[in-house]
Known about the structure:
There is one protein chain. The chain is α/β, with parallel strands linked by helices. It folds into two domains: 2-201, 3-Layer(aba) Sandwich (Rossmann fold); 206-303, Methionyl-tRNA Fmet Formyltransferase, Chain A, domain 2 (Roll), CATH 3.10.25. The protein contains eight helices and 17 strands. The protein has helices at residues 13-22, 46-54, 68-77, 93-96, 119-125, 161-185, 217-226, 297-303; strands at residues 2-7, 24-29, 34-36, 41-43, 60-61, 81-85, 103-107, 115-116, 130-137, 147-154, 200-201, 233-237, 240-249, 264-268, 272-277, 280-289, 295-296. Strands 5-2-1-6-7-9-10 form a seven-stranded mixed sheet, sandwiched between helices.
Amino acid sequence: MRILFAGSPDIAVPSLEALAGAHDIVGVLTNPPSPKGRGLALSPTPVAERAASILPGVPLLAPLKLGQAERELVRSLAPDILAVYAYGRIFGPKFLALFPRGGINAHPSLLPRWRGCAPIPYAIISRDERTGLCVQRVAREMDAGDILDRVELSLRGDETTGSLSAWAAEAGAAALLRVLAAIERGTERAEPQDASQASYCAAIRKDDGLISWDESPETLYAKLRAYSPWPGVWTTMKGERLSILGMEPYDGGAFGDAEPPGAVLRMDKARGILVKAGSGVLALTALQLRGKKAMGFKDFCNGVRGLEGLVLGA
């Protein structure tokens, strides 16, 4: 089939590669270049970079909005279907009308749970026992289309957004290929979503990584994993930014009840720097002060004196 592929971040690249190997990609739609790095130079999306490498000569569209000019260009490409993974925008009816076979969209959650742009970190923060990936028909409402394919994954409780994104990147590519093959055969089956069970997730912001020590150890550990690799979690120590790179809930007994949240209680030589979190204790295992190198907790304690009794985030 003749496919217009729409996607932007790394998670969409394996799908672009898989579809390019099995179908005719007539165009690639992605987000405009954005400023990155210390110099804030404009950089193309990962999908744009990969498309330029594996699909030379194929039109690459990176518009700020999908207006009449963009629709006319897509019309001239005569695509059969729109295949989407993490493009990040809702398509209007005039644009969708350009595709005789409609559009399909890979989404890394078990829809209707976690509709929206950050389903992977939300599944981790919520400590879901399972997640997955769906391919849905593209609908006017965000992530509300009929389900065409579903893959489930049980969660152990140690996954990060990075590790789940890597899984979802490959799962999405395979699922899109299955759905396209079924559409070509005329054997696809569509399952409507139960809108009454829908939940939604908002975009993750940079300041979401600021630790509130009033939260439980389990919640903070989930946030560490959800915000890895970005934006990370951090607190302050004596007014300096302190990134927490590793942590785990501490189950070595109850103590520190009289201390405020964020208080450094002591160092457990086998587990980490013990800090009061909510009504429990968290063991910090890897840390990094701004402008310094990342350290394990033992090296950090050797380099920073007088930790015990400090209140982080104060």
